[in-house]
């Protein structure tokens, strides 16, 4: 059976997650859903770009994925300080100085505040990395 990372990640972010995130961030659920629809492929593109940048980049992605496995447990409470700190570290590693522009573009696309897009990205990236790490560990 083949593994579809994009579908697996999309399925991880349930309506329960969307509702909790919208409540925590003071945004409407459709805006959060729309932001996630941009964050998921953006995050995966950042991971792919880093992983294909050479041996060091590939090893960095593998290490981040292994360290994030706990974030992909199915627990929708991803807004804990440790998770957000891990998310900020992943974002910085993947996107560097372009992260504020990415957050701004996602916020405009989804109709949410820049700070909400940033927080949502910090919650989502560890889960995405964790899903990748679980798959790597199992295979």
| Mean pLDDT rating | 89
Q: Oligomeric form of this entry?
A: single chain
Helix content: over 70%
Poorly predicted runs are none
Instruction: Count every helix, treating DSSP H or I runs of 4 or more residues as helices.
Output: 7
Major sheet attributes: none
Report Rg. Answer: 14 Å
Q: How many runs of DSSP E, i.e. beta strands? A: 0
- Taken in chain order, the helices and strands follow as HHHHHHH
Shape: globular
Q: Give the CA-CA distance, first to last residue.
A: 12 Å
**Would you tell me the structural class of the helices and strands?**
mainly alpha
In short:
Helices cover 77% and strands 0% of the residues. By secondary structure, the protein is mainly alpha-helical.
Describe the 3D structure.
With 139 residues, this protein is mostly helical. The protein has seven helices and no strands. Helix 3 packs across helix 5. The mean pLDDT is 89.
Write the layout of secondary structure elements.
Blueprint: H1 5-12, H2 15-25, H3 29-51, H4 55-67, H5 81-95, H6 99-110, H7 114-138
Helix pairs in contact: 1-7, 2-3, 3-5, 3-6, 3-7, 4-7, 5-7, 6-7
